[in-house]
Amino acid sequence: MPPHHATLARTVQRLSEQRFARFGGLPLQDFRTARRRFVRLDETASQLLHARRRDMLDLLDDEGMREQWIADHARRLGEVAYRHNQFLSPSDLDRSPATAIYRALLPRLRDALDASPSLPALDQTLQPVLAAHHEALWRWSTDLLTERFGDGLAQPVCSEYRVELQLKVLAIEVPRLVEPILDLGCGEGAHLVRHLRTLGLSAWGLDRLATPTEAVWQGDWLDDDAPLQPQSWGTVISHMAFSNHFQHQHLRRDGAAATYASRYMKVLEALRPGGRFFYAPSLPFFEALLPQQRYLVTRRPVAGTAMEATEVLRRAD
Asked: Is 93 helix (H, G, I), strand (E, B) or coil?
């Protein structure tokens, strides 16, 4: 790819990210409310497309570039969905037509560019293209939530909790933590991981929305390559994350409770003898099944709530 095409592709990516930031905060089932704003590009984006029209057509004719853009946008759309409903799973997104939506958009965008030699003409030609795209996204969000969660369209939003609150809820005394430490579902900002590392502790995090760093993995705790090798952690922490999902799957008629039960045991096996698994909310329906000769379960009420937090100690072998 010529250098000027690569520079243009990066600029388009940045403008696309800004657009996702503008509209990604809307409730999924309220995408339609943004229609008037959505069907027009920002002035900066319109001017760029017009000024670099021929180069943009070249990029849109490049199959490799198109496939990369389609994959990137489908991934970002999935991240928007996760942020709005933490109980959506990768399989839910895999079954949704997110990729097809962008595969349909790019040829329409190319035709609009090719047919619009002036900036006003481009703006006018793009409006029905963006309107159709917006309608497809609205149908995608509505169908996805209705199929997965019913007509209620509940939206349990992912949250980034303060470090102090996490430690208080889980009744964790930092000086007593056994290293290495894994924060399972650490959140996009991995705040607890960063805090523990500033204290000199060997802490790591895993989250499907996290930006990968030397201390944080981007991934799902159900993935085969999740860092849960036997006896690899002194402490595993999961505040309003793994057990919250396990409880949700347990309560759903069509839930994947058995999958979560298996993964829960994998987490316990990933503890070293004497290691602990701290999490909230508690899972009394499953904790009662743990062999007492191997695990010691302690539940504590969380002040000001009806919730309990759990500490599971893996006894010495």
From this structure: helix
Task: Look up the pTM and report it.
Answer: 0.66
pLDDT band at 27 (very low <50, low <70, confident <90, very high): low
Judged by DSSP in three states, 70 sits in helix
Report d(CA 290, CA 310) in Å as an integer. 13
Contact 133, 101 (CB under 8 A): yes
Angle between helices 3-23 and 63-84 (to 10 degrees): 20
Per-residue pLDDT, averaged over 281-302, amounts to 95
CA gap 190, 98 in Å, rounded:
27
CA quadruple 203, 218, 270, 246: dihedral, nearest 10: 110
Six token digits for residue 316: 């010495």
CA dist 21 and 17 (Å) reads 6
The vertex-164 CA angle with 159 and 245, nearest 5°, equals: 35
Over residues 133-176, the pLDDT tens digits come to 888 887 787 777 666 655 444 445 455 788 999 999 999 999 99
Percent of the chain exceeding pLDDT 90 equals 46
Q: In what order do the strands lie in the sheet with 233-239?
A: 216-218, 203-207, 181-184, 233-239, 271-280, 308-314, 295-301
Q: What is the mean pLDDT of residues 84-113?
A: 80
CATH number of the structural domain 163-314: 3.40.50.150
Report the distance separating Cα 109 and Cα 167, nearest Å.
Answer: 49
| Cβ within 8 Å of residue 92, ≥6 positions away | 81, 144, 148
Between CA 60 and CA 161 the distance in angstroms is 41
Two tokens at 140?
Answer: 């995608």
Q: Rounded to an integer, what distance in angstroms lies between the CA atom of residue 230 and that of residue 232?
A: 6
183 and 215 Cβ atoms separated by less than 8 Å: no
Across the range 202-230, mean pLDDT stands at 94
Cα(232)–Cα(239) distance, integer angstroms: 20
For the chain, give every domain's residue range.
Answer: 3-149, 163-314
